[in-house]
Design goal:
The chain has helices at 3-31, 40-47, 71-83, 95-104, 118-123, 168-178, 193-201, 212-218, 246-261, 264-273, 281-293, 295-309, 313-324, 344-349, 358-375, 382-395, 397-409, 417-423, 430-433, 444-478; strands spanning 49-55, 62-63, 68-69, 86-92, 109-111, 126-133, 135-140, 161-164, 185-188, 207-211, 225-230, 235-241. The protein is an alpha/beta fold. The strands form 4 sheets. The protein has a 5-stranded mixed beta sheet with strand order 4-1-5-12-6.
Length: 479
């Protein structure tokens, strides 16, 4: 082979090797399966667990007398049920702790009543907004002298104010201080907003700032606090989601839209926050006094009747207080009498011989409530059922049926208390009641009646759960 032939042969060999190598590579690339990106939503559904951080507070999540509850817990529980998964809960005690857990454990969702401020929106991945609130200055009700009760931002000068670290209130007050307002604020890294409300009630501090939903949830427990003024415009509360959660976020938007449109959101907000509309400071203050002076005389009767008919004794006590203020000799202008304010005819049916006898009255009243519960239409479920029964105790089942009929005519949900609250007051208007079976009724009264009972019941729950905890702690100390 001459020199030129050898050169040509080498060149052709190199071309062949290049073509073979390129073809082989192309074939291998084309037969490789592309790596599938693992989506967070798919992981949640596969593992059957939704990892959430929840703020341990009255407005968010807590362990109640019988079960886990709280506005944001109920929301997330509904979403978990929608996905067909379980909630795996990690609790935080302050918003600062909740935000730290975003970084340290990377949960799927953080739910802590966090406002979508401009600062936080840049730092965190927020999901859909689920509630609207305002920041409110809350102060000790009886401030006097130089420390008078504030009515605007200028009045905050000279007052002792504290807020929880990591909150939107901290950001708002810092912005006001930068704008030149004289505000003496302490930022607490250890205390939650609820704990600071406790300090306001004890007048350890003069004021704090909390969101309107937190104030609404706590006002019944702290008669000595009062709303001074709102310090912000409307703000959106949102959940913080993990970073790789585009599909999860889209799914949550779809679920939340359905939850709102079905009326479930309105019903949930109504359950946790509506009683603020009926809050009466002086009535609540008197209620606290009578818990000490009157309730001990009758508590054992409430407990025994509650045990017999499977109804919470605190609910029975709340009904009795609403009816008679725990006065066994109470009498109304219509002739109803006793602790449970029974009519003569109702007492006869219940075989109550003496309406003024505390034990007989409580036992008879409890039996009557149990009957009301049984007579509420079976389509009405859960907490709605109890509220329907309480309203019936006040106004009679016939008017409850009329309110349901009216709800159906108005395309409302006749099994929802939040919708029945809209139709009951209409029973006082001829336009509505003239076509209904039981006619006129002062329908606004059972609405106030039910809300007041729930307010009293919740106060009793709070007092006696806390008392039990304190008793347990004392017992431990003695051992």
């Amino acid at each position: 082979m001459n020199k030129h032939s050898k050169t040509l042969f080498n060149l052709l060999l190199l071309i062949f090797i290049y073509i073979f190598g390129w073809t082989s590579h192309s074939f291998s690339v084309s037969t490789e399966k592309p790596l599938k990106k693992v989506l967070l939503l798919d992981t949640i559904k596969t593992s059957k667990n939704l990892d959430v951080v929840l703020l341990n507070s009255l407005s968010t999540y807590y362990i109640g007398t019988n079960a886990q509850q709280g506005f944001e817990y109920d929301l997330l529980k509904n979403y978990a049920d929608y996905l067909g998964v379980e909630l795996n809960i990690t609790t935080a005690h302050t918003i600062k702790e909740a935000l730290q857990l975003v970084e340290s454990i990377n949960p799927d969702i953080v739910s802590a009543g966090i406002a979508k401020t401009a600062y936080k929106a840049k730092k965190y991945n927020f999901g859909p907004s689920y509630s609207e609130v305002q920041e409110q200055v809350v102060c000790y009700r009886w401030m006097k002298g130089p420390k008078r009760f504030p009515r605007d931002i200028e009045d905050l000068a000279g007052l002792k104010i504290s807020v929880s670290e990591g909150t939107s209130y901290n950001e708002t007050l810092n912005a006001l201080i930068e704008d030149g307002f004289d505000i003496n604020v302490t930022v607490s890294s250890e205390l939650s907003s609820e704990e600071l409300l406790t300090q306001v009630a004890a007048h350890t501090i003069d004021c704090t700032v909390v969101n309107s939903n937190i104030y609404s949830a706590n006002i019944r427990y702290f008669p000595k606090i009062a709303l001074a003024f709102s310090i912000s415009g409307r703000e959106q509360l949102g959940w913080i989601l993990a970073q790789n959660s585009k599909e999860l976020k889209s799914n949550m938007y779809a679920w939340l839209n359905n939850f709102n449109q079905s009326g479930s959101m309105g019903e949930l907000k109504d359950h946790y926050f509506s009683y603020i509309l009926f809050y009466d400071y002086y009535d609540t203050k008197m209620f606290y006094k009578r818990i000490k002076s009157r309730l001990p005389k009758y508590r054992k009767f409430f407990e025994k009747a509650g045990e017999k008919y499977d109804i919470s004794w605190k609910l029975l006590a709340a009904i009795s207080y609403q009816e008679s203020h725990w006065n066994p000799n109470a009498k109304s202008f219509t002739g109803v009498r006793g602790l449970m304010m029974l009519t003569r005819d109702t007492a006869k049916l219940l075989k109550v011989k003496n309406r003024l006898d505390p034990k007989e009255s409580i036992t008879g009243g409890t039996k009557h409530i149990k009957q009301m519960l049984k007579n509420v239409p079976k389509r009405v479920k859960g907490e709605n059922r109890l509220k329907f029964a309480l309203a019936a105790y006040n106004i009679g089942l016939g008017h409850i049926y009329d309110a349901q009929t009216l709800a159906r005519k108005l395309n409302l949900d006749d099994t929802s208390w939040s919708d029945l609250k809209k139709t009951l007051p209409l029973l006082a208007y001829k336009k509505y009641y003239k076509s209904l079976k039981y006619g006129y009724a002062r329908g606004s009264e059972p609405v106030k009646y039910v809300e007041s009972i729930y307010n009293y019941r919740n106060i009793l729950h709070n007092i006696f759960v806390e008392s039990k905890k304190e008793s347990n702690l004392k017992n431990k100390d003695l051992k």
